[in-house]
Amino acid sequence: MEQTVPLSSAYIPMRPKSIAVIIVAAGKGERAGTTGNPDPKQYRLLAGEPVLSRTIKAFLTSDAITQIVAVIHPDHASRYGQLFLDDDRLLPPVYGASTRQGSVLAGLKALAPLHPDLVLIQDAARPFVTPALVERIIAALGQNDGALPTLPVTDTIKRSRDGTLVATTEDRRQLFAAQTPQGFRFGQIFSAHIRAETVSRDFTDDAEIAEWAGLGVTMVEGERTNIKITHPEDFSRAERIIMADHGTETRIGTGYDVHPFAPGDAVWLCGVKIPHKAKLQGHSDADVALHALTDAILGAIGEGDIGTHFPPSDEQWKGAASTLFLAHAGELVARRKGRIVNLDVTIVAEAPRIAAHVPAMCAVIAETLGISADRVAVKATTNEKLGFIGREEGIVSMASASIELPRVD
């Protein structure tokens, strides 16, 4: 028979010397998947920055935090390495397990040699934890074994035995929704997790393990914006939260480019190689469509043009893939804490035929910029045999970009 396991409590009378954070990021985030974006939710871009990066940075803003360890999926090691986070408090990641409980235990084991006083356990998909919330959790641990943020349930809650008929109505005054980070005395929660591993029971969170182990867990006031990204629509809600923090303004940029044909056997358009009787002439891969689109994005954020950032006189860009230029423009948007709303590209050419390649073009642009493919439009038209385009001497492309940026008054 399962038994409660009591653990000793030794209250911390003063500010703890070390406070570690475990960020649980070992899941595959399949429920948050969207068409055209297969990335796990913790690595998807949120207003230009990966969710996991935002979550980690939220804790790095607190001087009270002394160590952070991310628990990741073994298949995501390269993705994690691309976050490029530089802080001495951020420890090397450890691999998680098939369950959240197992992943938290892996994080606890990694921290054990450091003997932290307290540990905060955080979901990777909650990127909006604030310093004030972290402080409330830490303060509560001065007199309690554990602490977690909660919000009172405002909806009327019904219980049903068969999922169809209502059996009873719960007293919502006694119901609270739990959030993370959940904080504990390190030794106590580590011991509780070790013991919980030996019983046949699915624990829903770390506070439940603490309760089962006989620890006193107190509630502190949670935050409405401390949402957990679970479903595709949560990304739109999360972006609205980011923009609401500082207000936004919409910027529009346009781009135009033209390249002549030269002897060759294929052209690059929107990052897709299309067989043709000629190629486009240029210093890079001469992707006229991506050049126009890059200029549109740079124009929207007031960052000059493509030649300013990638001069054709610089030999390092000779033959370079134009997706590099587009990615750079996207990174500049992210640095400004902006959001790409939509992109529109028009290609004007008599040949080659482009329509069959449009889905692949949209996918390349979306992947390069970390946005959903439904924010990208690529269109093609001819010049009705008129002018140099009509004579098949080259290709023209025009593009527009709509971008939201934080308002600066």
From TrEMBL:
The record marks 172, 228 as: Positions MEP for the nucleophilic attack. It comes from Devosia subaequoris. HAMAP family: IspD, IspDF, IspF. A divalent metal cation binds at residues 257, 259, 291. GO terms for molecular function: 2-C-methyl-D-erythritol 2,4-cyclodiphosphate synthase activity; 2-C-methyl-D-erythritol 4-phosphate cytidylyltransferase activity; metal ion binding. This is Bifunctional enzyme IspD/IspF. The keyword Metal-binding applies. Residues 251-403 form the 2-C-methyl-D-erythritol 2,4-cyclodiphosphate synthase domain. PANTHER family: 2-C-METHYL-D-ERYTHRITOL 2,4-CYCLODIPHOSPHATE SYNTHASE, CHLOROPLASTIC. Pathway: Isoprenoid biosynthesis; isopentenyl diphosphate biosynthesis via DXP pathway; isopentenyl diphosphate from 1-deoxy-D-xylulose 5-phosphate: step 2/6; Isoprenoid biosynthesis; isopentenyl diphosphate biosynthesis via DXP pathway; isopentenyl diphosphate from 1-deoxy-D-xylulose 5-phosphate: step 4/6. It holds the Pfam family YgbB. In the N-terminal section; belongs to the IspD/TarI cytidylyltransferase family. IspD subfamily. Its cofactor is a divalent metal cation. Residues 1-250 are annotated as: 2-C-methyl-D-erythritol 4-phosphate cytidylyltransferase. Its EC number is 2.7.7.60, 4.6.1.12. Bifunctional enzyme that catalyzes the formation of 4-diphosphocytidyl-2-C-methyl-D-erythritol from CTP and 2-C-methyl-D-erythritol 4-phosphate (MEP) (IspD), and catalyzes the conversion of 4-diphosphocytidyl-2-C-methyl-D-erythritol 2-phosphate (CDP-ME2P) to 2-C-methyl-D-erythritol 2,4-cyclodiphosphate (ME-CPP) with a corresponding release of cytidine 5-monophosphate (CMP) (IspF). Transmembrane segments: none annotated. Keywords: Isoprene biosynthesis, Lyase, Metal-binding, Multifunctional enzyme, Nucleotidyltransferase, Transferase. InterPro entries: IspD, IspD/F, IspD/TarI, MECDP_synthase, MECDP_synthase_CS, MECDP_synthase_sf, Nucleotide-diphossugar_trans. GO terms for biological process: isopentenyl diphosphate biosynthetic process, methylerythritol 4-phosphate pathway; terpenoid biosynthetic process. 4-CDP-2-C-methyl-D-erythritol 2-phosphate binds at residues 257-259, 283-284, 305-307, 381-384, 388, 391. The record marks 31, 41, 283, 382 as: Transition state stabilizer. Residues 251-409 are annotated as: 2-C-methyl-D-erythritol 2,4-cyclodiphosphate synthase.
